[in-house]
């Protein structure tokens, strides 16, 4: 089964300084049919105006992943981290017992474009932690998040993996999910056909009960593929 979540069907909020598209129910956007998918709770695609951002706010018991597509995020938190996250880098923060942080666009001219993704952890009240990493620019599959930090990936407190797949025009990829696993595919850029269904940039596919997932890129394409537990 493959369900296509078209980009333009997501929840949308425009606050002047923030243009945000919500894959799942978030803030004032509520749809009982889109409350999350397996351990995924939030996938927001945000564009933040120059010199604007989110002031200090709290989180608890959530794994929070930020992927910067263009621009720079300036992050500061109650753990003492003050970092800049440039385009192409991933940041993971385990909120655990509780953390406060702010996220700003420090550039006074260029907008900031990013994905912010919340993943429900399989452990409650862990000690908060922070990591960020620039992964090599390469084609094919790279692990970004794994529960055991394999192959130099970032650690996630959940029975899941996140892979980034980069495909050239005309290139194909495939994998066989383990039985009962759920898969979420987010198209970061490009156009791709997944098991004969076509997706464009910012579209997504929820996949379950498929023995094989085959994807073919119509142009240079980047995918985020979440391999998730059954519930």
From TrEMBL:
Domain Quercetin 2,3-dioxygenase C-terminal cupin residue range list: 144-228
Family statement drawn from the similarity comment of this UniProt entry: Belongs to the pirin family.
Family matches, as SUPFAM superfamilies: RmlC-like cupins
Organism in which the protein naturally occurs: Rosenbergiella gaditana
Protein name, as recorded: Pirin family protein
Upper classification of the organism: Bacteria, Pseudomonadati, Pseudomonadota, Gammaproteobacteria, Enterobacterales
One family name in Pfam for this protein: Pirin
Stretches assigned to the Pirin N-terminal domain: 7-119
